């Protein structure tokens, strides 16, 4: 038995969907433990691309059970649209393959409206949210004002909770944000209309996982966003509203930390970021455009162009430490194939100081400039290679340097978007290459 957490080791969009899809082959249960439909995981099977926002990436494997853990916030409309899209492609033929923990908090129409209106009101101080209502939903969860998935399936409970909270939300929308109020009747009609379709997915995720682990099942925990967007340990306030690091898997799925065997951090061979916030290695030149175009760096959820920059070892070391990474999965190595040289940030310069550790102070971080080491490129097409040993010497040297700088082994190298464009060095479920 092995239980493995997959986390983003940067600011998200690292390629977690592909890695989860690959590792799912070795698991019986796949759990999404935090975030909402502000995250998009892209999977490419053959020539077919599938983008998932709420449902775990393991859903493309018919014999696996996928669980949406209690740490997730869920928009029922988006969830049902995702189910319909999967079915059109021939997936999710058996509803028992998918479960939603009853403690999952629902994203309500007022959460979305508040999210969008706040960003507009913030002007230049906006934080770059996706406008999907994620932050306001987590606020209500922590304030114990949230409406849960299980509540939706009990009409009288849902009506009562909505009736209690909506006047407060409408007051805030009207009096502070200058928006039109929402109709209680319209929300009831919409959401209770979802309830019957959703009833069959209700479950107790933590209990199911506990029994599965006792039975010797392998469990794969799938995170959303990236470690540097963690609400506690990220570049606050330019972060998401949940715990994206490995510890969030335990709280967001309801399992004890002693049950976790491996934590794999996904890192691109360079770095991207969506939205606002500090980004020391960001490139504002033709090289940044080249990385963006070569890597198709546009958000799977929003379509927004991603900010691009060189690999940041200082930030990667932070992810290794906060997650307790046992391995790094290095993705999009092929995007660098045309470059004569590749730069890697190994330290920051802040005024007269040389910093090798990631600053917690936002005001310090935004004034840091990268200290680069330049290494030779390979300028060879690597997309069709079938083993790590076939990679050009320069690529292997790049991987070795990353391992040494980050203090963590690279266990997988992705050389393209497809499943078969993956080179394994060690499988966290089997311990083999």
UniProtKB/TrEMBL annotation:
Q: Binding positions for IMP?
A: 13-16, 38-41, 130, 144, 225, 240, 304
Q: Which reaction does it catalyse?
A: IMP + L-aspartate + GTP = N(6)-(1,2-dicarboxyethyl)-AMP + GDP + phosphate + 2 H(+)
- Detail which positions bind substrate: 300-306
- The protein's annotated pathway: Purine metabolism; AMP biosynthesis via de novo pathway; AMP from IMP: step 1/2
Q: Where in or outside the cell?
A: Cytoplasm
Q: Which CDD domains match?
A: AdSS
Tell me which GO cellular component terms the UniProt record holds: cytoplasm
- Which amino acids does the record list as binding Mg(2+)? 13, 40
Cofactor detail note: Binds 1 Mg(2+) ion per subunit.
Cofactor(s) it depends on: Mg(2+)
**Keywords of the record:** Cytoplasm, GTP-binding, Ligase, Magnesium, Metal-binding, Nucleotide-binding, Purine biosynthesis
Q: What is its EC number?
A: 6.3.4.4
| Signal peptide from the UniProt entry | none
**Keyword Cell inner membrane set for record:** no
Q: So where does GTP get bound?
A: 12-18, 40-42, 306, 332-334, 414-416
Q: From the UniProt record, which GO molecular function terms apply?
A: adenylosuccinate synthase activity; GTP binding; magnesium ion binding
Q: Does the keyword Metal-binding apply?
A: yes
Record: active site? 13 (proton acceptor), 41 (proton donor), 141
Q: What is its main location?
A: cytoplasm
Q: Which GO terms describe its biological process?
A: 'de novo' AMP biosynthetic process; IMP metabolic process
Name the InterPro entries on file: Adenylosuccin_syn_GTP-bd, Adenylosuccin_syn_Lys_AS, Adenylosuccinate_synth_dom1, Adenylosuccinate_synth_dom2, Adenylosuccinate_synth_dom3, Adenylosuccinate_synthetase, P-loop_NTPase
What the record says about family reads:
Belongs to the adenylosuccinate synthetase family.
Q: How would you summarize the oligomeric state and partners of this protein?
A: Homodimer.
Q: What does this protein do?
A: Plays an important role in the de novo pathway of purine nucleotide biosynthesis. Catalyzes the first committed step in the biosynthesis of AMP from IMP.
| Full protein name | Adenylosuccinate synthetase
Which species?
A: Desulfuromusa kysingii
- Gene transcribed to yield this protein: purA
């Amino acid at each position: 038995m092995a239980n493995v957490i997959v986390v983003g080791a940067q600011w998200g969009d690292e390629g977690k969907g592909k890695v989860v899809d690959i590792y799912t082959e070795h698991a019986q249960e796949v759990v999404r433990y935090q975030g909402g439909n502000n995250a998009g995981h892209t999977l490419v099977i053959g020539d077919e691309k599938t983008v998932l926002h709420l449902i775990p990436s393991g859903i493309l494997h018919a014999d696996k059970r996928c669980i949406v853990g209690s740490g997730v916030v869920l928009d029922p409309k988006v969830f049902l649209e995702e189910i319909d899209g999967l079915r059109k492609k021939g997936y999710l033929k058996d509803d028992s393959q998918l479960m939603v923990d009853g403690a999952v908090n629902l994203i309500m129409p007022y959460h979305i409206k508040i999210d969008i209106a706040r960003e507009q009101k913030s002007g230049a101080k906006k934080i770059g949210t996706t406008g999907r209502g994620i932050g306001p939903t987590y606020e209500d969860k922590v304030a114990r004002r949230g409406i849960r998935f299980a509540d939706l399936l009990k009409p009288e409970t849902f009506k009562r909770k909505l009736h209690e909270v909506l006047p407060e939300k409408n007051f805030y929308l009207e009096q502070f944000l200058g928006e039109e109020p929402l109709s209680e009747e319209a929300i009831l009609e919409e959401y209770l209309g979802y309830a019957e379709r959703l009833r069959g997915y209700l479950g107790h995720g933590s209990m199911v996982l506990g029994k599965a682990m006792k039975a010797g099942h392998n469990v794969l925990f799938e995170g959303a966003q990236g470690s540097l967007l963690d609400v506690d340990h990220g570049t606050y306030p330019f972060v998401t509203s949940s715990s994206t690091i490995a510890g969030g898997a335990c709280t967001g799925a309801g399992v004890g930390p002693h049950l976790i065997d491996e934590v794999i951090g996904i890192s691109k061979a360079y770095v991207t970021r969506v939205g606002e916030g500090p980004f020391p290695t960001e490139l504002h030149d033709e090289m940044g455009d080249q990385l963006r175009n070569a890597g198709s760096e546009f958000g799977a959820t929003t379509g927004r162009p991603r900010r691009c920059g060189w690999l940041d070892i200082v930030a990667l070391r932070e992810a290794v430490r906060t997650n307790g990474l046992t391995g790094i999965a290095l993705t999009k190595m092929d995007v660098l194939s045309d470059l004569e040289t590749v730069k890697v940030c190994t330290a920051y310069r802040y005024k007269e100081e040389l910093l090798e550790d990631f600053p917690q102070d936002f005001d310090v971080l935004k004034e840091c400039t990268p200290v680069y080491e330049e290494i030779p490129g390979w300028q060879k097409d690597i997309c069709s290679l079938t083993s790590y040993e076939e990679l050009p010497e320069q690529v292997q040297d790049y991987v070795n340097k990353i391992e040494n700088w980050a203090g963590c082994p690279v266990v997988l190298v992705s050389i393209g978007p497809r499943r078969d464009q993956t080179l394994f060095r060690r499988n966290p479920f089997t311990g083999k290459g």
